[in-house]
Amino acid sequence: MKIWKQLPYGWKVVFAFVFFFSATLGFAYFKARDTNPSIPIEALATTPTEANSWKGHPKVVYFWATWCTVCKAYTPILEANLKFLPKETMFLSVLESEDSEETKEILSHLSSESTYPIYTADYRMLKEWRISAYPTTLFIDANGNVVFADSGILSPIGFWIRSFLLRFF
């Protein structure tokens, strides 16, 4: 404790920053170890060719819902986060499949203006992938294993660190 009191304030901030991000990475890593779905993420693809093109690439999969206000608030941050995504990493946006006119309207509107593909997942798929809260972001390595799983808003730094670390898994 004596050493801590003698440290300059700037070093304390750096230490707190490193500790915080290490803890959140650890939580995301251990949460991901609990995610072992029997349905591959390639099941979302609309064609077999598309599914084959996903294999061997690391992926960031973002699960969200139309009724989720946090998801709506997170959209500008997500757009900023995607700028940090390495070129070889694929980004997939997965919308909770609701059988409503509102969902169909939102999906058709978003698909036309979105810079990334938007897919829909039914309850069975969401249950297999252990999606229990929105938004949920999964970081999947090139072998299809979930490396990090986060619920809620990810900061650009946290997003970049997770997508960067995918290279080493």
Strand fraction equals 15-25%
Query: Given the structure, what is the number of helices?
Result: 7
- Strands of the widest sheet, in order across it, are 3-2-1-4-5
The biggest beta sheet reads: 5 strands, mixed
Question: How would you classify the quaternary structure?
Answer: single chain
Order of helices and strands: HHHEHEHEHEEH
Determine the structural class based on helices, strands and strand pairing: alpha/beta
Helix amount? 40-55%
- What are the low-pLDDT stretches, counting only 5+ consecutive residues below 50? none
Number of E-type strands: 5
Mean pLDDT: 87
Shape, please?
Answer: globular
Give me the Rg, rounded: 18 Å
Separation of the first and last Cα atoms: 37 Å
Structure description:
With 169 residues, the chain is of the alpha/beta class. Helix content is 47%, strand content 17%. The protein has 7 helices and 5 strands; from the N terminus they run αααβαβαβαββα. It has helices at residues 2-6, 9-33, 48-54, 69-82, 101-113, 123-128, 156-165; strands spanning 59-64, 90-96, 118-121, 136-140, 146-151. A 5-stranded mixed sheet has the order 3-2-1-4-5. Helix 4 packs across helix 7 (156-165). The protein is globular. The mean pLDDT is 87.
Please describe the topology of this protein:
Blueprint: H1 2-6, H2 9-33, H3 48-54, E1 59-64, H4 69-82, E2 90-96, H5 101-113, E3 118-121, H6 123-128, E4 136-140, E5 146-151, H7 156-165
